[in-house]
Amino acid sequence: MQRIQKLRDNIHSVLHGQDHAVEMAIICFLASGHLLIEDVPGVGKTTLASAFSQSLGLEHRRLQFTSDILPSDILGVNIYDPKMTQFVFHEGPIFTNILLADEINRAEPRAQSALLEAMFEQQVSMDGVTRALPNPFMVIATQNPVDFAGTFPLPDSQLDRFLFRISMGYPDEDAERAILRSDIRRAELKPVLTKEDIQDLIQKVKGIHVSEEIIDVVIKIIHATRNHALIIQGASTRAMLDLLDAAKARAFIRERDFVLPDDIQALAPYVLAHRVRLVARANTDADALIRSFL
Predict the structure, then answer these.
(1) What pTM does this model have?
(2) Are 64 and 105 in contact (CB under 8 A)?
(3) Which residues fall within 8 angstroms of residue 151, CB to CB, at 6 or more apart?
């Protein structure tokens, strides 16, 4: 797929050694999902989000989440205009195609919850008025590990809105050598796809064939999370739908018009691990547990 390869190459020109993270971002976008990147500071989370949005040529905005941010700072606010003798709505940064929510877990739950309606229904309701968000709309959120100072764990309802949770990790030596030799901090990327390209790709992903056998595989995995002795809260129905949508996007970028079990197996940990809750005595994490019974 030439258009997908152009997108990869453009992002890799400023983000070295993160092939997997770039692929996951592309899959997430084509599946109309939202991406949560969890890792330590300084490994390229914000660079990935910025390079991705610039390469698509869509409107994007960056919002730094802090402990004192308010819902109105995200959604917008009605301000009285004396000349018009009425309140006028001033849009917040969420009215964009791609919103980079940087360090989302530094905000208090009240601010985090402002994203719930937008991420699921692609709209914002304020003062009795519902306003549609641009199409396409995607949230790329970064968060620091929960044991870092000054963080607030994302509630289950918020985590369930994210299609993927990924971790980037440190680049290898060759990648970091390339970073030192280049001047990526000042790099400005040009769009490699048009809005027509983007809509065409998304529509083609929706047309990927899914057999009854694949549906059975997805159902078995979801129900396994609900019946495991170490899991007290299994994956939701939304997680089941997201897993299938992501598998279709993965099949598409691999130039197939049908989903294989390999697509489900490869993506399930990233779709499900952040949506299940383990018992307190579990001597493992959700990611490892899901991989163990796949």
Answers:
(1) 0.90
(2) no
(3) 105, 106, 143, 144, 145
What architecture is domain 1-184+192-206?
A: 3-Layer(aba) Sandwich (3.40)
Tens digit of pLDDT per residue, the chain (294 long)? 788 999 999 898 888 888 899 999 999 999 999 999 987 777 777 788 888 888 988 888 989 998 889 999 999 998 888 888 888 889 999 999 999 998 888 888 888 888 999 999 999 988 888 999 999 999 999 887 766 656 778 888 889 999 999 988 788 888 888 778 776 555 678 899 988 999 999 999 999 999 999 999 999 999 999 998 889 999 999 999 999 999 999 999 999 999 999 999 999 999 999 999 988 887 888 888 898 888
Q: 207-294 architecture in CATH? A: Orthogonal Bundle (1.10)
Which uninterrupted H or E stretch holds 62?
A: strand 60-64
Handedness of CA 58, 197, 124, 44 (dihedral sign): negative
CATH topology agreement for domains 1-184+192-206 and 207-294: no
DSSP percent split of the chain into helix, strand, coil, nearest 5? 45, 15, 35
Instruction: Tell me the two tokens of residue 211.
Output: 């057999």
Q: Where are the domains of the chain?
A: 1-184+192-206, 207-294
Distance CA 181, CA 294 (A): 41
**39-44-49-54 Cα dihedral, nearest 10 degrees:** 180
